[in-house]
Design a protein that fits this description.
By secondary structure, the protein is α+β, with helices and mostly antiparallel strands. It contains six helices and nine strands, in the order αβααβαββββαβαββ. The two termini are 36 Å apart.
């Protein structure tokens, strides 16, 4: 949430900065001296001062999304220059620099995401080729792998069922991405609206069953990244089917 608010603040500052007309550059006019040091300031008490600090903190925190090349000293200098009305760059130069940097950062992020996606896909394939050899692990025609952990005797699910289930989602590196067990209450799921691998797996179950699914990337989120889940991630579900509506 902090980053989202910070990004809005960055955008607001850029818009205001670029709408002030041609700023006086540092080359044209010496900057006024800043009295004292900003590090001599004590913790603010007044609401205006407190908000000013929070604004600056969020502004700096949001800048981190643009990569490791961010220099926080120049961020502080930019804030002070804005307040004094002086600047190293004209409005037009600021707009060009901001656009160029964002394009570069985006291209680098996309390239990195592509590398992560390719590596995850290779790791998933390697894991599944070994996991499929284990006793008790079955592989469907689609490539979904599953293991029966507990057997029930209730009603059978089908791909169009609406079910009540407990589940956990773990990634290949062991990180827990989601868990209704931890939330302490089961989840109602329309199998028509979930990822293909989960839909196929649950449709194999009876009420009372507990299965573990290994969902290949192409039956999961594929190349789409989700919060906490990288593109082409192998998804490991532990599912207890509690009921069918």
């Amino acid at each position: 949430m902090l980053k989202k608010v910070g990004l809005l603040l960055v955008s607001a500052v850029l818009i205001v900065s670029c709408s002030r007309g041609n700023a006086v550059t540092a080359e044209e006019e010496a900057l006024p001296e800043v009295p004292g040091s900003i590090y001599s300031l004590e913790k603010p008490q007044a609401l205006d001062d407190s908000f000013s600090y929070v604004f600056g903190y969020m502004l700096a925190s949001s800048a981190g999304v643009y990569g490791e090349g961010i220099d926080y000293q120049y961020i502080a200098r930019g804030v002070l220059d804005f307040g004094s009305g002086a600047s190293f760059f004209s409005s037009e130069e600021m707009s060009r620099i901001a656009s160029e940097y964002q394009r570069t950062a985006m291209a680098e992020a996309q390239a990195r995401l592509g590398e992560i996606s390719s590596q995850n896909k290779a790791d998933a394939q390697s894991f599944l080729s070994v996991n499929g050899q284990r006793a008790g692990v079955m592989t469907t025609e689609s490539g979904l792998q599953y293991e029966i952990l507990e057997s029930g005797s209730g009603e059978e699910a089908n791909p169009d069922s609406v079910v009540s289930a407990h589940y956990s989602l773990t990634l290949l590196d062991g990180r827990l991405a989601d868990s209704s067990y931890e939330r302490g209450e089961p989840t109602e799921l329309d199998l028509q609206s979930v990822i293909p691998g989960f839909r196929e797996g649950v449709s194999l179950m009876r009420v009372g069953d507990r299965y573990r699914f290994w969902v290949p990337p192409e039956l999961g989120y594929g190349e789409t990244a989700h919060p906490g889940i990288e593109p082409n991630s192998l998804l490991i579900f532990d599912v207890s089917l509690l009921g069918i509506d």
